[in-house]
Write a structure and sequence with these properties.
heterodimer; A: 864 residues; alpha+beta; Beta Polymerase, domain 2; Four Helix Bundle (Hemerythrin (Met), subunit A); Hydrophobic Seed Protein; 5 domains; eight-stranded antiparallel beta sheet; four-stranded mixed beta sheet; 54% helix; B: 132 residues; Alpha-Beta Plaits; four-stranded antiparallel beta sheet; 19% helix; elongated
Amino acid sequence: MGTPSTPFTVLRDFYAEEFARIEREFRATSNGRAATQGRASLLDRVILELSREFLAAEPSDLKKLCLVALGGYGRRELFPHSDIDLMFLWEDRSTESRYREGTQAVSRALWDLRLRLSPTYRFLGECEKFQRDNAEFNISVLDSRYLAGDRELFLQLRNKALPHMIDGARSDLLRDLSELTQQRHKKEGDTIFHLEPNLKNSPGGLRDYHVAWWVGLISRMEKTGRWATSEDIWPSKARLDMEAAFDFLAAARCFLHYRQGRDDNALSYEMQAAAAARGIGIENCRAIDPEDWMRIYFRHARAVYALCTQLLDETVPARDTSRVRGWKSRRSHSAFSVAGARLTVLEPAGLRDPHRLLEVFKYVAEHGIKLSREAEDQIREALPTIFDSGSSLPTLWSNLREILLARHASEGLRAMHSAGLLVRLFPEFGAIDSLVVRDYYHHYTVDAHSFMAIENIHGLREAQQNWERPFATLFSELEEPELLFLSLLFHDVGKGMPCEDHVAGSLESIEKVFSRLDLKPGQADTVRFLIRDHLAMSASLLRRDIFDLGTIRAFAEQVGTPEWLKLLCLFTYADIRAVNPEALTPWKAESLWQLYVLTANYLTRSLDEERFRADAGDLQFIDRIFPLLSAAASREELASFLEGLPRRYLFAHSPQEIASHFQMARKLKEKSVQLHLEHRGQIYALTLLATDRPFLFAGVSGTLASWGMDIWKAEAFANAAGVVVDTFHFTDPHKTLELNPSELARLQKNIEDVLTGATPRERLLRGRAGAQSKLQPKVSVPTQIRFDDSSSPHSTLMEIVTQDGPGLLFRLSSTLANFGCNIEVALIDTEGQRALDTFYLTFGGAKLTPDTQERLRVRLLAEE
Amino acid sequence: MQVESSKIDTRTDDPRRQNSMMRIEAIIQPSRFESVKEALHQIGVEGMTVSEVRGHGRQKGHTETYRGREYEVDLLPKVKIEMVLPYNLVDGAVQTILKTARTGKIGDGKIFLSKVDEVIRIRDEERGEGAL
């Protein structure tokens, strides 16, 4: 490279030729680091020439003026079309007056070369002070590098002024860095997994690399009074990862700049394909598949993001330390601790115990605290010991369930995935690791989308917008929210499988997942349903008229039960919202809610009409249940039992449960009341089969209330032969049954006695009335009673909303029975302190007349 | 201007004919949007602006009760499609929307047509039909 001589045109040609030479070398080698260093050196030469032209024949002779490279130029990382930060540093005002014109001429010449120059003019004294309104300058000056002029002045800047500024404003500098980084990350959705990331600004991009560099510089200066170097700024392992990441990111950014001819850092699908085809950042510039190339990008971005955020967490004062202090005091004996908002493992050997390993992630999921890099490395090292030995994890579901239900579940799952545990536990998830599926709407990789969907549901706990609140209420009503989370986690794994329909792939995978989790058959059915039909609600929303009864009927038939409808509605909410930040508009959310309400009401109000009819093509239910029966039973017998039962009953119960009910029904000839009581976690489920009789529903609800049980959900159905199938879900707030297991049998005997008349019904609740009447409700719920004659051809539907309380169902059902009403179907539900009960009633075998309805309303209100 | 007839007068004395571009604004049922978009693409209409809107005409809303709470459904969800087309494509586009968006029920929507005096492409400042 020959030394150019002015005039300007010669310098311009020189710059253009050298720029082209560096580009040619990059095309041959893909070495981004060399290209950026080459351009920085080229600019050094140009600025030196201009200094000779406009400031002094020998720039090193300049006194009290120094030209300083800042920012990326200062670090010798000048990308092909990046801005050039140049500082003219004066010692005093007289120097400024003397050289002002010359420095402006240098700037003008650089602009005339079409370079994007950002010149800065500062006195040395100004650089000693932290500039509150100019965070960018405070940070860029940390990367100052001598170019030309008074070297002594530069050394004063480097060795005195800047250390003085850092010493006095370390906290402010770090706070600014942290806030700017948080704002930038938030703008980018707080995830590295963008389908079309920005190489500079996305989390895990070059800006994060530099944040980690600046935090390292400030920390080293504080601890040792020296500037860190690239050899000692970070721990050795992190340094190797970071340098590898920089080489990849720098090569990719140079590629984009050269290809686009401007400072464009958007890694679009088109650019990804082009970079992968050129093998940018790949050894020997080997062409690879774009999806694999993006996986390499994400691996580097993950390393950069992890170090950047960890360094910020360690050095910036924690925003919320109370929970950490509390935790430490409670768990001081534990194998791990929390410092700087990061979890550190005290006894890495303990991680080889799967249960202790999962404890770490349960804590992360509960508190939203990230793993330290060291902890993540230690976990990664421990995994082969656990998994290569073939150890099984018999309690995997109970541990995973706790993680899924925790407030920060998505953080826990991301940590498990980042450390490699999630794929070890569920190799199926590996199919969507950092997977880019190109479409116009999705912004994130498939794995990130799945975690974000889970986060969207947990985010409903702090719902702010009016349109979010109904979904928040729905979430609080779910019986098994963990099944929703499990479905969200695996619903898209099929996208990474070689199959045309990703839903089919996901369903295939979930069966393998089930083989490692001890889910009950009904739970597995729920997860299968959610994965199989996860697009059904959004499809109805967008492609069907949701105000058309036919649409609602078909959709209700597809969903089957109110609980599955709730789950699918929330699934759809979370799934759409995880597509991109704008995907779930208030318009879509409100339409989704309307579809939910219309379908939920249809499921409730069509109960009496939508019944099993063996002669109407409902034989598929027989096909599912019959194989589960004993050899003695016939298909005709089963069909006879099911005849006339609401279809909702068939959807709400698993084939195994219905088979069990059928067997109970067969025993009714021997004993007129058949009971089955089951303990499910905090809930007891009582199933009753009996021939229909007056006060049956009141008798059971009264007995349960007299035992202090709290009924929160119940259903009462009957078949065409008059066999009643009632289910009651209740809690035991006084732990009577839990502490006295023998009382279970006595409770069942008590119910039988009440139903057979051996125990007078009137005795029920007699002793409890006084104590219960003193209880004050937390929320006052005014009673609303609504009658509807249009939903059923032969019953009147009565919906009652009222204050929940002990014995309420007994009082209601007794009043109905005493009034002369027959309960054809009952659906009992509670929402906090609101009882939401629906009864299909007949009076004298027919619908209630308007006059009867009014008299019943008066009677019910009088009984309150 | 609301379309009263389903056919646009293409005679030269039609005052609208003197203007070379027209803006079509169609309010349709959300469930018909995908079909309408596809049908418009098939006749060569590629560019359009789509908005999620709410409203009602003669199709009034109603009140829905869910678990004892009342929900006013007075403004119904609709999709608004807007496009500016050269005059020779307008008739085909209107016919396509009419044919594809119609279900025959109240609430199928409306089409509004208006003249456009000028269009300018921001990128290169090209004007007129060429900028569409």
